[in-house]
Amino acid sequence: MREKKAHYIAVIKGNQPTASAQLKALPWEQVPVADTVSQAGHGRRESRSVKTMAIAANLGGITFPKARLALRIHRRRQESGRRQTRETVYAVTSPDTHQASPADLSGYVRGHWGIENSSHHVRDVVFAEDASTVHPGSAPRAMAALRNLAIGRLRLPGADNIAKPTRAIQDSPKHAVWIWGITDSPLLPET
């Protein structure tokens, strides 16, 4: 990061309890909403509001180098026929307020969620990564790399729904032959 003079935005999750507690404890009720976006599509309505706060003076000892801003993103989601859900996400970022607007920062976090949904969510739902009992040494990292390789290879022929060709391969492993380019004859059902 420093060598390339790049900035970062890091979403703080529950597996980072110290940073999470520090961010939640900031006086967010005193901070006005800096940006709000509402969208409708795919059978749902969603709105996101963003608050930003300089953290240099307010949050000492954070483990992220050069963190300048804290973000609180509150998301409301209403799917057709379902109850409304609410989620609050906290993040830290290195740019100052004059380097990135709250709308820009919200967009960056939204982009992160897009990666989360297209990669991590697929690895967990289709390949049950979170339920994996592989723990010793570097085996979890190797398994994640193999899952990523499989997902990438399944996306090459145009699969949007990774679960469908994965089930086809589980039901008939000979389908994997075409996926890896060993034969020219496509054996997979429509992806």
What features would you describe in this structure?
With 191 residues, the protein is an alpha+beta fold. The protein is 33% helix and 22% strand. It contains 5 helices and 5 strands. Strand 4 and strand 5 form a beta hairpin. The radius of gyration is 21 Å and the shape is globular.
Question: Layout of helices and strands, plus pairs?
Answer:
Blueprint: E1 9-12, H1 17-24, E2 35-41, E3 44-54, E4 69-79, E5 85-93, H2 102-125, H3 139-155, H4 163-171, H5 175-179
Antiparallel strand pairs: 1-5, 2-3, 3-4, 4-5
One letter per element, helices H and strands E, the order comes to EHEEEEHHHH
C-alpha geometry: globular
Total DSSP helices? 5
Largest sheet: 5 strands, antiparallel
- DSSP, total strands: 5
Radius of gyration: 21 Å
Category by helix and strand content: alpha+beta
Low-confidence stretches: none
Percent strand equals 15-25%
